[in-house]
Known about the structure:
Layout: E1 4-8, E2 15-23, H1 27-35, E3 45-50, E4 57-66, E5 77-84, H2 86-98, E6 102-104, H3 109-116, H4 122-133, H5 137-147, H6 150-174, H7 185-215, E7 217-222, H8 229-237, E8 255-261, E9 264-270, H9 280-294, E10 298-303, E11 326-331, E12 350-352, H10 362-375, H11 387-405, H12 411-429, H13 435-443
Parallel strand pairs: 1-6, 7-9, 7-10, 10-11, 11-12
Antiparallel strand pairs: 1-2, 2-5, 3-4, 4-5, 8-9
Bound molecules: guanosine-5'-triphosphate, potassium ion (K) and magnesium ion.
Potassium ion is lined by residues 226, 245, 247-248, 250.
Amino acid sequence: MVDTIFALSSGAVPSGVAVIRLSGPHVREALTALIGxxxxxxxxxxxxxxxxASGDVIDEALVLFFAGPASFTGEDxxxxxxxxxxxxVARLLEVLSGLEGHRPxxxxxxxxxxxxxxxxxxxxxxxxxxxxxxxxxxxxKQAVRQMGGALGKLYEGxxxxxxxxxxxxxxxxxFADEEDVPGSVADQVWQQAGELACDIQDHLEKSRSGERLRxxxxxxxxxxxxxxxxxxxxxxxxxxxxxxTEEAGTTRDVLEVHLDLGGYPVTLVDTAGLREEAGRVExxxxxxxxxxxxxxxxxxxxxxxxxxxxxxxxxxxxxxxxEDVSVWTVWTKADLETLPKQDxxxxxxxxxxxxxxxxxxxxxxxxxxxxxSEMISLGEAPLATxxxxxxxxKDCSDALGRAVTLSxxxxxxxxxxxxQAADALGRITGRIDVEDLLDxxxxxxxxxx
Length: 449
Ligand SMILES: Nc1nc2c(ncn2[C@@H]2O[C@H](COP(=O)(O)OP(=O)(O)OP(=O)(O)O)[C@@H](O)[C@H]2O)c(=O)[nH]1
Ligand SMILES: [K+]
Ligand SMILES: [Mg+2]
């Protein structure tokens, strides 16, 4: 028989209320041991929780019982909403450990059981993890949508269409000798397959948006030592995160803050000033700065009056630049000197800032917010949110592309490509062989979920 698992599902104690959750075949026994009865399902009742060994009252709690399979995990589930005192929670967990067939849950194990019993597909599981991790409004929206099944439904719909197409093609093989089957069924199928290929390609192209929203945009501050990068980070974050001194080479490690810009998540990264001659520690800092720059969605080049442009920075910055990443020039210390006339060609974005003036970084904040909303366009259609989705979507799109374009191949081979395309989608939702992926996906969860 499977174990009954239990865990503290609410946050750190002490807290006003703590929720201890149980799931498994012995939940009814546990309730009988603790409160003397199994309460009616889905109705909360106030009960005294007693240690079954001594009869000692541990706490008073609201007790909820969900009879399987109509529960989160599909098993019998109970929730004990007790007071969130350390001793209360510790004692309850200890008592539960002592009960026959009970053990503490592993991270993500409740959700794993829900998945194993078909209560959720993998995209819903991932959506749930994202709801728990969401830090901004746009992230929350996307996660709730995915948890509600929008993405899984989209993929399942496509998969069903592919299965249907394949059935049509194969039916035609079976009836190929018979006169009364119209020869154009397969032609229609290949046309539908072509349309679906376009839909999937379109979805794939937008997938970066969903991934960016999930993980946050990476905006990296770079520039020569003393350009004012750390001061900018502090001003944008509204708190003293980084050390600022007049000494060139103050920042060595990479520092980051999470900003919520109009609901969009932005990770702002401060880095060591770039220069050719540097000591050992600083050189390592510069290497790390270059690594972060290479992974950036946007680089803010900090330039004080008289300082070098990105192009003038030479070998320390040159290798960091990529075709597809924007670099903005952020003029710093604008309170000190009148800035040179700005480049009006429109090819490079230039923004004036000062950390010594009220509202001196406001234009930069606004520009960043605009950039984030452009990079992450959250429309009505659900977006792929993980590299994993993109990987299998690409497999699907490739197989479908072959099925559609290789019209000189025998129908059997083209039908096989349709099967592979459908299977790739099934791997995203977890409908087919994803055993190797499950540990990775559930590992991200906290205990109690
Ligand atoms: N007047 C004025 N001084 C500034 C401004 N921003 C930064 N400074 C000063 O410039 C100096 C360097 O600032 P930092 O923020 O440490 O510069 P950094 O680019 O992080 O320097 P490193 O970490 O050493 O590469 C400090 O003395 C700051 O007080 C500004 O907007 N106006
Ligand atoms: K400095
Ligand atoms: Mg610094």
